[in-house]
Amino acid sequence: MTRFIDVQDLARLVNRKGVATCLVEMAEYIRQDYLRWHDFDKCARVASHSHDGVIELMPVADASLYAFKYVNGHPKNTHNGLPTVMAFGTLSDVSSGAPLLLSEMTLATALRTAATSALAARYMAREDSRSMALIGNGSQSEFQAIAFNTLLGIDEIRLYDIDPAATAKLVANLTGRPGLKLIVAQSVAEAVRGADIVTTVTADKAFATILTPAMIEPGMHLNAVGGDCPGKTELHREIVEQARVVVEYAPQSRVEGEIQQMPADSPVTEFWQVVAGQANGRENARQVTLFDSVGFALEDYSALRYVLDMAQALGIGQDIALVPTLENPKDLYALLQPRVVGFRATPTTACA
Fold first, then answer.
1. pTM above 0.85, yes or no
2. Are residues 206 and 92 located together in one domain of the fold?
């Protein structure tokens, strides 16, 4: 049987654990899996692009578990009552191929993205960082704010979005959260000025320059989340050229990340190297660091592992017959045969 977790199941799981606790625990699952980087069979995600958005499959596997996520990105969806991002994922047993988990991943993706962002900032931001500008206040923003507050102690967040209603939504959702001061800015420049960390999480599928070189101050850590497909960026090229850049998986990031603006042979550091201690996330206090995050399948693998572990521990979700259970594994056709109870064939007799 396969454990099935729908949207309400996952919401119940997160509410039982608490959002902050889920972010902390999921970040640790992600850290543990990045430490096992070489155990995984990896590839860039498979994308199908259209004028309005993208649909992607994100697979990864180690010797025990295979995971993939289906996810879209359609910025215009909100005008039609749909989320920009929708996702589901599976976790399967490598030895048999049997699916262990089928889960919603729209909410789970928001959690794993925020957990990854804050985890990267632990290695890359200055230790005395206490303020963050959050540019783009849509569906991901609350999770980013809570993750940075919980994992890094960020206690002041300056908010800006071209849609004031999005910022008002974020403020309403997080007002009253202990130890967190929210400041609404009137422009990107105002939000960024003096911030220790800048997170950009915008949705438009375009070569955008949300941040320009004049906005960048020595020692800033930039968490670029929104640029995640070809033709979609958030930072001016000069910022990328001058910053210390860390990516999740270079073959994917060179196509989809901020570094798509750079020559194909430009040097970058992969996050696993930083986690493993093979490279520094930051070399000095005045250095500008950039986590060029596009989202990688390994993080979904970690998130699915976490969801399955917590769902089993808390008794959340249901077991479904996603694949058949057969008395004779070679007789699939038996599923189509009528089940006759109490029937017994009568032997025929010859006529005289």
1. yes
2. no
